[in-house]
Backbone:
């Protein structure tokens, strides 16, 4: 009857480990089971993805995801259209803090950019990192001011 105290592995399931390259008497000395000369006999062959002259799998597969470029990180603006600015009073100063307070944007990110979609009905002083050409023209047409920070 078998119990935990007398369990054994199946025959051949576990083999003793041996140290390679420790003399001819061990049966695994000199070339340590790697044959003679050639690429396969050297230490680096298994690690660098060499596939016998065939294009390696890392170069055959398509690359996915965001990849860094030499141009650096893209500026990420919080964008606001002109029509959203009509909730401010005439002559008010509109900046990132005011936009967050009115819940037009959630956070400033790298700055605020004003875009020209919609119509502006109020004279405002708008302070932002960037403006589209049409937005700047629309703000100044009503006598407002577009300040680039």
Residues:
């Amino acid at each position: 009857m078998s119990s935990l105290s007398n369990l054994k592995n199946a025959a051949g399931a576990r083999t003793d480990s041996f140290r390679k390259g420790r003399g001819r008497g061990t049966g695994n000395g000199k070339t340590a089971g790697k044959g003679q000369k050639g690429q396969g006999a050297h230490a680096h062959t298994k690690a660098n993805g060499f596939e016998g002259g065939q294009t390696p799998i890392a170069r055959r597969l398509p690359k996915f995801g965001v990849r860094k470029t030499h141009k650096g990180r893209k500026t990420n603006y919080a964008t606001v259209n002109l029509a959203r600015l009509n909730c401010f009073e005439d002559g008010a100063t509109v900046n990132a803090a005011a936009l967050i307070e009115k819940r037009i944007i959630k956070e400033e990110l790298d700055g605020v950019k004003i875009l020209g979609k919609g119509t502006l009905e109020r004279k405002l002083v708008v302070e932002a990192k960037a403006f589209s050409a049409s937005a700047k023209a629309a703000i100044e047409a009503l006598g407002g001011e577009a300040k680039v920070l």
